[in-house]
Design brief:
Blueprint (H helix, E strand, L loop, with lengths): L3 E4 L5 H11 L4 H6 L5 H20 L1 E6 L5 E8 L7 H15 L3 H11 L9 E8 L8 H16 L3 E5 L2 H9 L3 E7 L6 E7 L1
Parallel strand pairs: 4-5
Antiparallel strand pairs: 1-2, 2-3, 3-4, 5-7, 6-7
Helix pairs in contact: 1-3, 3-4
């Protein structure tokens, strides 16, 4: 089956959000930060919100699609030279709080805990990568990450990510990332690995 890797456009947001929600169905970070009630729909709605308001306008989203252009895998990046304006983040806050539900305070605290662990210098930031669960372990995540990683290599720029799944650590290490920090979010939160690709 031929796989096409391409940059996402606004019309892809719904399909990309659905793939990310499927991929993150049991992810420790989202389980900790998003209400368990209608959890899957909340995750999908939050992903759509971030895609439409942040990633597509100010970053880059890359897709791996099949011959019918069905989205199978998604990578969401923030770019070294581009950041969303603070007003955009403020406007999103109320919707985000509603979608996170009774885990919103935990989400805010978790984000405040990990934010200082991120590099202060410009870098490519991998906000999310996810593959449909029925298509995982077929090389799609590597394929969808490759365009930005190759660009980072050409420009001599670092890439950074956080993950809360131990299986992900070895996957990212194969792509050249190294663990910088290992820590647990306080009050029983998920374990987090921060990883840098120099």
């Amino acid at each position: 089956m031929a796989i096409v890797v391409r940059r996402a456009v606004a019309a892809d947001a719904d399909a990309a959000a659905a793939v990310l929600a499927d991929a993150f169905a049991d992810y420790p970070w989202t389980r900790w930060t998003i209400d368990a009630d209608a959890h899957g729909q909340r995750v999908e709605d939050l992903q759509r919100l971030c895609l439409n308001r942040l990633a597509l306008p100010y970053g880059e989203v890359w897709l791996a699609c099949d011959e019918a252009d069905a989205v199978l895998s998604v990578a969401v990046w923030t770019l070294p030279q581009s950041a969303p304006p603070p007003a955009e983040l403020d406007e999103m806050g109320e919707v985000q709080a509603t979608l996170e539900g009774d885990r919103h305070e935990a989400s805010v605290a978790a984000e405040a805990f990990v934010a200082p662990l991120r590099p202060a210098t410009p870098h490519y930031y991998l906000g999310a990568v996810g593959t449909r669960r029925d298509r995982q372990r077929q090389g799609l995540a590597t394929a969808v990450l490759t365009p930005i990683l190759e660009r980072a290599d050409r420009g001599g720029e670092p890439a950074f990510l956080e993950t809360s799944a131990p299986d992900n650590v070895s996957f990212y290490e194969r792509l050249g990332f190294v663990v910088v920090t290992e820590t647990a979010v306080p009050d029983g939160g998920p374990y987090v690995w921060t990883m840098l690709r120099p």
